Amino acid sequence: MSQNYQDRLKDIDKRTGALFKAQTKVMRSFSQLSQAASADGALDAKTKELMSLAISISIRCEDCIVYHLKAAIGHGANEDEIMETLGVAVEMGGGPSVVYSGRALEAYQALSA
Amino acid sequence: MSQNYQDRLKDIDKRTGALFKAQTKVMRSFSQLSQAASADGALDAKTKELMSLAISISIRCEDCIVYHLKAAIGHGANEDEIMETLGVAVEMGGGPSVVYSGRALEAYQALSA
Amino acid sequence: MSQNYQDRLKDIDKRTGALFKAQTKVMRSFSQLSQAASADGALDAKTKELMSLAISISIRCEDCIVYHLKAAIGHGANEDEIMETLGVAVEMGGGPSVVYSGRALEAYQALSA
Amino acid sequence: MSQNYQDRLKDIDKRTGALFKAQTKVMRSFSQLSQAASADGALDAKTKELMSLAISISIRCEDCIVYHLKAAIGHGANEDEIMETLGVAVEMGGGPSVVYSGRALEAYQALSA
Amino acid sequence: MSQNYQDRLKDIDKRTGALFKAQTKVMRSFSQLSQAASADGALDAKTKELMSLAISISIRCEDCIVYHLKAAIGHGANEDEIMETLGVAVEMGGGPSVVYSGRALEAYQALSA
Amino acid sequence: MSQNYQDRLKDIDKRTGALFKAQTKVMRSFSQLSQAASADGALDAKTKELMSLAISISIRCEDCIVYHLKAAIGHGANEDEIMETLGVAVEMGGGPSVVYSGRALEAYQALSA
Question: What ipTM score was computed for the predicted complex, to two decimals?
Answer without folding.
Answer: 0.96
